[in-house]
Amino acid sequence: MSCGCGKDFDTGSCVIDVLKEIERAQRDVVENHCSTSCERSINDLLGESDHGRGLDTVPIILYCEDGCKPFKGFGADRKREDKIGPIVASFIFRVKSIDKNDCAVLELLLAHEQPCGYNDLKDPTEQKTKNLQATGICITVDLHCFCHVTCLPAISVFH
């Protein structure tokens, strides 16, 4: 069965179609009223609206198939060459890449003022979104495990 949720992709999965479109738009970004938040965010990113100047990221929230619960990713950075930093969690991600098997590399996005003990978040509404920043912490996910994607307004995370 074909979803056709993306403009240029029709994999049979709406989540995959939209994320592939976001990935391409983010990769191609050089420096209106839409019917969906993802479409509006993609148009803003591509500069097809008045809001799109200098934007480089469409932050997303994914929902797992099992009960359609928000997906929370975990990761850690290196403090030094031989030390692992604290484990951090986020419900908000930036699409880095999607391979031919529909596995995606997602980067955790965190607010600059996010406290270290943020791993206790129960749902995305508890996560701070002001001043979201790229963390360099990436995870790999199978996109077939998700039933829903929410796109947040396009932003700039790279300065």
Question: Brief description of this entry?
Answer:
The chain has 159 residues and is an alpha+beta fold. 15% of the residues lie in helices and 30% in strands.
Please provide the ordered H/E string of secondary-structure elements. HHEEEEEEEEE
| Count of alpha and pi helical runs | 2
* Neighbour order of strands in the largest sheet: 6-7-8
Q: Please state the structural category.
A: alpha+beta
- What spatial form do the alpha-carbon principal axes imply? globular
Report how far apart the termini are.
Answer: 42 Å
Integer tally of domains: 1
- What Rg is obtained from the alpha carbons, in whole angstroms? 16 Å
Quick one: biggest sheet?
3 strands, antiparallel
InterPro entries: Spore_coat_protein_Z/Y
Organism: Oceanobacillus indicireducens
Pfam family, one: Spore-coat_CotZ
Protein name: Spore coat protein Y
Structural features:
three-stranded antiparallel sheet; two-stranded antiparallel sheet; 2 helices; globular; Spore coat protein Y; capsid protein; Spore_coat_protein_Z/Y; virion
Structure description:
The chain is an alpha+beta fold and 159 residues long. The protein has one domain (14-151). It is 15% helix and 30% strand. The chain has 2 helices and 9 strands; from the N terminus they run ααβββββββββ. It has helices at residues 14-28, 37-45; strands at 60-64, 73-75, 78-80, 83-84, 88-90, 93-98, 103-111, 132-142, 146-151. The strands form 4 sheets. It has a 3-stranded antiparallel sheet. A hairpin with a 4-residue loop joins strand 6 (93-98) and strand 7. The longest helix is centred in the first third of the chain and has 15 residues, at 14-28. It is globular. Residues 30-36 have low confidence and may be disordered.
